[in-house]
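Quick note —
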Amino acid sequence: MLHESMRSRDGSAGSEPASDSPSVSQPSADAGAHADAVVDVEVLKRYIGDDAEAIAEFLTEFRKSVLHHAVELEKGVVAQDVLQVSRTSHTLKSTARAAGATAFGNVLAELETAAQRHDLEVIDRYYQEFRRLLPLVLARLNALVPAP
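Predicted structure written out below.
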């Protein structure tokens, strides 16, 4: 969550303080049960075809991007840096949607829009949704393409 000192445009305080250092949650054991619907490979196949090697390569790169951008997004949220939140969300949004992580991409789009409006309260709300979906997306990616 955003720091308590963070203020929205109307001057109201954010909810809870964020952790001191950026971290990416690892998927829980039960996350995989819900993850099948989180990344739909059929969507990706519409973009790149049914080539298993190309799909695996795309998903491997997408996983790396998710891990990197999750840390960058948290840094932006913690620092109250709406430009970083906007840029990071924008960068990951299209790739997420192309990979079939549609809900994840939609949350990123909402984060981008909220950051462009400097709406810290909405950033907080969608950042919490991002953090809820993150382990589900990672679990599904790990099931599809095991990490090295």
